[in-house]
Amino acid sequence: MATLEYLWLGRVGYSDAWALQRHLAAARARGAIEDVVLLVEHAPVYTMGRNGSAAHVPRGAEHLLSLGAEYVDVDRGGSVTFHGPGQLVAYPIFQIAGVFPMPGEPGRGDVVAHLRALEEALIATVAAYDVVAMRRPPYTGIWVGEEKLAAIGVKLASGVTTHGAALNVSTDLDWFGQVIPCGIEGAGVASLASLGVRPAPRLHDVAVRFATELARVVGRRPKRGGEAVRGAVAEAAAVPV
Fold first, then answer.
1. Which of the residues are catalytic?
2. CATH number of 3-235: 3.30.930.10, 3.30.540.10, 3.20.20.80, 2.40.240.10?
3. Is 221 a known ligand-binding residue?
4. pLDDT string in tens for the chain (241-residue length)
5. Residue 121 contacts by C-beta under 8 Å, 6 or more apart in sequence?
6. Centroid of chain to Cα 157
7. What does the radius of gyration of the chain's CA atoms come to, in whole angstroms?
8. 152 labeled part of a ligand binding site
9. Is 81 part of any known ligand binding site?
10. Is residue 80 part of an annotated ligand binding site?
11. What is the pTM of this model?
Protein backbone atom coordinates (compact mmCIF):
# COMPACT_ATOMS: atom_id res chain seq x y z
CA MET A 1 0.00 0.00 0.00
CA ALA A 2 1.23 3.50 -0.79
CA THR A 3 2.09 5.69 2.18
CA LEU A 4 1.08 9.16 3.35
CA GLU A 5 3.87 10.86 5.24
CA TYR A 6 3.25 13.16 8.17
CA LEU A 7 5.38 15.42 10.36
CA TRP A 8 4.49 16.76 13.79
CA LEU A 9 6.45 20.01 14.12
CA GLY A 10 5.02 21.33 17.38
CA ARG A 11 4.74 25.10 17.92
CA VAL A 12 5.67 26.96 14.73
CA GLY A 13 5.18 30.64 13.90
CA TYR A 14 2.45 31.18 11.33
CA SER A 15 4.66 33.00 8.82
CA ASP A 16 7.33 30.30 9.12
CA ALA A 17 4.74 27.59 8.52
CA TRP A 18 3.35 29.43 5.50
CA ALA A 19 6.82 29.82 4.00
CA LEU A 20 7.51 26.14 4.70
CA GLN A 21 4.30 25.13 2.92
CA ARG A 22 5.32 27.08 -0.18
CA HIS A 23 8.79 25.51 -0.13
CA LEU A 24 7.42 21.97 0.22
CA ALA A 25 4.72 22.58 -2.39
CA ALA A 26 7.41 23.55 -4.90
CA ALA A 27 9.37 20.42 -3.97
CA ARG A 28 6.26 18.29 -4.38
CA ALA A 29 5.46 19.82 -7.76
CA ARG A 30 8.87 18.81 -9.11
CA GLY A 31 8.69 15.34 -7.52
CA ALA A 32 11.43 15.86 -4.94
CA ILE A 33 9.18 14.72 -2.06
CA GLU A 34 6.07 12.61 -1.64
CA ASP A 35 2.70 13.81 -0.35
CA VAL A 36 3.01 14.93 3.26
CA VAL A 37 0.82 16.38 6.02
CA LEU A 38 2.43 19.00 8.26
CA LEU A 39 0.95 19.08 11.77
CA VAL A 40 1.54 22.17 13.90
CA GLU A 41 0.32 24.49 16.64
CA HIS A 42 0.52 28.27 16.31
CA ALA A 43 0.83 31.20 18.67
CA PRO A 44 -2.28 33.45 18.54
CA VAL A 45 -2.88 34.64 14.98
CA TYR A 46 -5.87 35.74 12.93
CA THR A 47 -5.72 34.96 9.22
CA MET A 48 -7.94 36.47 6.54
CA GLY A 49 -8.60 34.45 3.40
CA ARG A 50 -9.34 35.53 -0.16
CA ASN A 51 -13.13 35.52 0.36
CA GLY A 52 -13.05 37.58 3.54
CA SER A 53 -14.46 40.99 4.30
CA ALA A 54 -13.46 43.78 6.66
CA ALA A 55 -16.98 43.43 8.09
CA HIS A 56 -15.91 40.06 9.54
CA VAL A 57 -13.43 41.92 11.79
CA PRO A 58 -15.83 44.40 13.42
CA ARG A 59 -13.25 46.24 15.55
CA GLY A 60 -10.51 46.17 12.94
CA ALA A 61 -7.14 44.49 12.67
CA GLU A 62 -5.48 46.96 15.01
CA HIS A 63 -7.73 45.78 17.83
CA LEU A 64 -6.68 42.18 17.22
CA LEU A 65 -3.04 43.21 17.33
CA SER A 66 -3.65 45.01 20.63
CA LEU A 67 -4.79 41.69 22.11
CA GLY A 68 -1.37 40.18 21.42
CA ALA A 69 -2.26 38.26 18.26
CA GLU A 70 -0.83 38.53 14.77
CA TYR A 71 -3.02 39.40 11.80
CA VAL A 72 -2.12 38.01 8.37
CA ASP A 73 -3.80 38.23 4.95
CA VAL A 74 -3.38 34.84 3.28
CA ASP A 75 -4.04 33.22 -0.09
CA ARG A 76 -6.36 30.39 1.00
CA GLY A 77 -10.09 30.33 0.49
CA GLY A 78 -12.55 31.41 3.16
CA SER A 79 -12.69 34.39 5.47
CA VAL A 80 -11.17 35.20 8.85
CA THR A 81 -10.31 32.56 11.42
CA PHE A 82 -8.15 32.18 14.50
CA HIS A 83 -5.22 29.85 15.17
CA GLY A 84 -3.66 29.51 18.58
CA PRO A 85 -2.50 27.32 21.46
CA GLY A 86 -4.50 24.15 21.94
CA GLN A 87 -5.51 23.96 18.28
CA LEU A 88 -4.25 21.34 15.83
CA VAL A 89 -3.50 22.79 12.40
CA ALA A 90 -2.92 20.37 9.53
CA TYR A 91 -1.39 21.37 6.19
CA PRO A 92 -1.63 18.61 3.54
CA ILE A 93 0.89 19.13 0.73
CA PHE A 94 -0.73 16.89 -1.90
CA GLN A 95 -0.18 16.50 -5.61
CA ILE A 96 -3.92 16.47 -5.94
CA ALA A 97 -4.27 14.61 -9.24
CA GLY A 98 -2.55 11.62 -7.65
CA VAL A 99 -4.74 11.64 -4.53
CA PHE A 100 -8.09 12.78 -5.93
CA PRO A 101 -8.00 12.23 -9.71
CA MET A 102 -10.80 13.65 -11.85
CA PRO A 103 -12.36 10.80 -13.86
CA GLY A 104 -11.75 11.28 -17.56
CA GLU A 105 -9.50 14.30 -17.00
CA PRO A 106 -5.89 13.08 -16.70
CA GLY A 107 -3.64 15.34 -14.68
CA ARG A 108 -6.49 17.15 -12.93
CA GLY A 109 -7.44 16.76 -9.29
CA ASP A 110 -10.76 17.18 -7.51
CA VAL A 111 -10.57 19.97 -4.90
CA VAL A 112 -14.07 19.24 -3.59
CA ALA A 113 -13.05 15.63 -2.94
CA HIS A 114 -10.05 16.99 -1.03
CA LEU A 115 -12.32 19.09 1.18
CA ARG A 116 -14.67 16.17 1.83
CA ALA A 117 -11.72 13.92 2.72
CA LEU A 118 -10.46 16.43 5.28
CA GLU A 119 -13.93 16.56 6.80
CA GLU A 120 -14.22 12.78 6.92
CA ALA A 121 -10.82 12.46 8.62
CA LEU A 122 -11.74 15.15 11.15
CA ILE A 123 -15.07 13.50 11.95
CA ALA A 124 -13.31 10.16 12.52
CA THR A 125 -10.63 11.83 14.64
CA VAL A 126 -13.07 13.43 17.08
CA ALA A 127 -15.19 10.28 17.18
CA ALA A 128 -12.23 8.63 18.92
CA TYR A 129 -12.93 11.04 21.80
CA ASP A 130 -16.67 10.22 21.80
CA VAL A 131 -17.61 13.44 20.03
CA VAL A 132 -20.19 13.13 17.24
CA ALA A 133 -19.54 15.79 14.60
CA MET A 134 -20.99 16.19 11.15
CA ARG A 135 -20.92 18.26 8.00
CA ARG A 136 -23.21 21.29 7.67
CA PRO A 137 -23.72 22.15 3.98
CA PRO A 138 -23.15 24.55 2.38
CA TYR A 139 -20.35 25.32 4.85
CA THR A 140 -17.05 23.48 5.04
CA GLY A 141 -15.54 22.10 8.22
CA ILE A 142 -17.14 19.92 10.89
CA TRP A 143 -19.85 20.92 13.32
CA VAL A 144 -21.55 19.85 16.53
CA GLY A 145 -24.99 21.34 16.24
CA GLU A 146 -24.49 24.97 15.24
CA GLU A 147 -20.98 25.16 16.69
CA LYS A 148 -17.99 24.77 14.41
CA LEU A 149 -15.39 22.38 15.79
CA ALA A 150 -12.94 22.45 12.87
CA ALA A 151 -12.44 24.90 10.02
CA ILE A 152 -11.06 24.22 6.54
CA GLY A 153 -9.51 26.55 3.97
CA VAL A 154 -7.23 25.41 1.15
CA LYS A 155 -5.34 26.59 -1.89
CA LEU A 156 -4.44 24.74 -5.10
CA ALA A 157 -1.57 25.98 -7.27
CA SER A 158 0.54 24.10 -9.83
CA GLY A 159 -1.46 20.99 -8.97
CA VAL A 160 -0.39 21.00 -5.30
CA THR A 161 -2.50 21.80 -2.23
CA THR A 162 -1.51 24.07 0.65
CA HIS A 163 -3.24 25.37 3.78
CA GLY A 164 -5.74 22.93 5.30
CA ALA A 165 -7.68 22.31 8.50
CA ALA A 166 -7.75 23.58 12.10
CA LEU A 167 -9.29 21.51 14.89
CA ASN A 168 -10.00 23.10 18.27
CA VAL A 169 -8.78 20.75 20.98
CA SER A 170 -8.32 22.90 24.09
CA THR A 171 -8.29 26.31 22.39
CA ASP A 172 -9.37 29.41 24.34
CA LEU A 173 -12.59 30.11 22.42
CA ASP A 174 -12.76 33.73 23.59
CA TRP A 175 -10.36 34.58 20.75
CA PHE A 176 -13.07 33.72 18.23
CA GLY A 177 -15.42 36.22 19.84
CA GLN A 178 -13.35 39.09 18.42
CA VAL A 179 -14.31 38.25 14.81
CA ILE A 180 -17.06 36.62 12.78
CA PRO A 181 -15.34 33.25 12.31
CA CYS A 182 -15.29 32.12 8.69
CA GLY A 183 -17.68 34.99 7.96
CA ILE A 184 -20.68 32.96 9.20
CA GLU A 185 -23.07 35.18 11.15
CA GLY A 186 -24.57 33.61 14.26
CA ALA A 187 -22.45 30.46 14.25
CA GLY A 188 -20.77 29.31 17.45
CA VAL A 189 -17.38 27.70 17.92
CA ALA A 190 -16.56 24.58 19.92
CA SER A 191 -13.51 22.66 21.09
CA LEU A 192 -13.09 19.12 22.35
CA ALA A 193 -12.63 20.63 25.82
CA SER A 194 -15.81 22.73 25.60
CA LEU A 195 -17.69 19.60 24.55
CA GLY A 196 -16.63 17.83 27.73
CA VAL A 197 -13.61 15.79 26.65
CA ARG A 198 -11.61 15.31 29.88
CA PRO A 199 -8.74 15.38 30.25
CA ALA A 200 -7.99 17.37 27.10
CA PRO A 201 -5.94 15.08 24.84
CA ARG A 202 -2.35 15.95 24.00
CA LEU A 203 -2.13 17.82 20.73
CA HIS A 204 0.56 15.44 19.46
CA ASP A 205 -1.76 12.47 20.01
CA VAL A 206 -4.62 14.16 18.16
CA ALA A 207 -2.22 15.04 15.34
CA VAL A 208 -1.10 11.44 14.86
CA ARG A 209 -4.69 10.21 14.98
CA PHE A 210 -5.73 12.76 12.35
CA ALA A 211 -2.83 11.79 10.07
CA THR A 212 -3.81 8.14 10.49
CA GLU A 213 -7.45 8.84 9.65
CA LEU A 214 -6.57 11.00 6.64
CA ALA A 215 -4.29 8.25 5.33
CA ARG A 216 -7.14 5.77 5.70
CA VAL A 217 -9.57 8.05 3.88
CA VAL A 218 -7.23 8.37 0.89
CA GLY A 219 -6.37 4.67 0.89
CA ARG A 220 -2.82 4.94 2.15
CA ARG A 221 -0.72 3.82 5.09
CA PRO A 222 0.44 6.54 7.51
CA LYS A 223 4.20 6.94 7.83
CA ARG A 224 6.29 9.40 9.81
CA GLY A 225 8.04 11.74 7.40
CA GLY A 226 11.14 10.29 5.81
CA GLU A 227 14.55 11.60 4.85
CA ALA A 228 13.45 13.51 1.73
CA VAL A 229 10.75 15.60 3.39
CA ARG A 230 12.88 16.17 6.48
CA GLY A 231 15.67 17.36 4.24
CA ALA A 232 13.27 19.73 2.50
CA VAL A 233 12.16 21.13 5.85
CA ALA A 234 15.76 21.62 6.92
CA GLU A 235 16.54 23.25 3.57
CA ALA A 236 13.79 25.78 4.24
CA ALA A 237 15.55 26.62 7.54
CA ALA A 238 12.16 26.57 9.19
CA VAL A 239 12.06 24.27 12.23
CA PRO A 240 14.03 21.31 13.61
CA VAL A 241 12.57 17.84 12.92
1. 182
2. 3.30.930.10
3. no
4. 899 999 999 999 999 999 999 999 999 999 999 999 999 999 999 999 998 999 999 999 999 999 999 999 999 999 999 999 999 999 999 999 999 999 888 889 999 999 999 999 999 999 999 999 999 999 999 999 999 999 999 999 999 999 999 999 999 999 999 999 999 998 999 999 999 999 999 999 999 999 999 999 999 999 999 999 999 998 886 555 4
5. 210, 213, 214, 216, 217
6. 17
7. 17
8. yes
9. yes
10. yes
11. 0.95
